[in-house]
Specification:
- By secondary structure, this protein is mostly helical.
- It is 62% helix and 0% strand.
- α3 packs across α5 and α4 packs across α5.
- It starts with 14 loop residues before the first helix and ends in a 10-residue tail after the last helix.
- About 29% of the residues have low confidence.
Length: 116
């Protein structure tokens, strides 16, 4: 008997959970981006997937450096640079240094190109 005498809304009001549920359901419905091709969606989230070292390598690739020059600058082997470049291509969904560089500039991963 006594448990039923709790005034409505004083403890567990049914409105709160349903309200939070509908708020939780709203964002997925409003995101039309989920229908994007896998390459686009994966590329959009790629920057977070790049390691700090891959971002370093990408910045140097975007500045026009060769693997040998990147290796010398970062004190790693040319083979390791090539491995990083391959991983970057895979994560960004690109097939060339030019495309990786363009992606880096478009997404603010590296500074603006220097023009003289």
């Amino acid at each position: 008997g006594a448990a039923h005498e709790v005034p409505p809304g004083s403890r567990s009001a049914p409105e709160a959970p349903s309200g939070s549920r509908s708020a939780h359901q709203a964002p997925p419905g409003s995101r039309s981006g989920h229908q994007a091709p896998p390459g686009r969606g994966a590329a959009h989230e790629a920057p977070a997937a790049l390691t700090e070292r891959e971002l370093d390598v990408l910045g140097l690739v975007a500045s026009g450096r060769t693997n040998r020059e990147i290796g010398a600058a970062l004190h790693i082997s040319e083979h390791t640079v090539a491995r990083h470049v391959g991983n970057i291509f895979t994560k960004l969904g690109v097939a060339s240094r030019t495309a990786a560089s363009a992606y880096a500039y478009e997404h603010g991963l590296v500074g603006k190109p220097q023009r003289k």
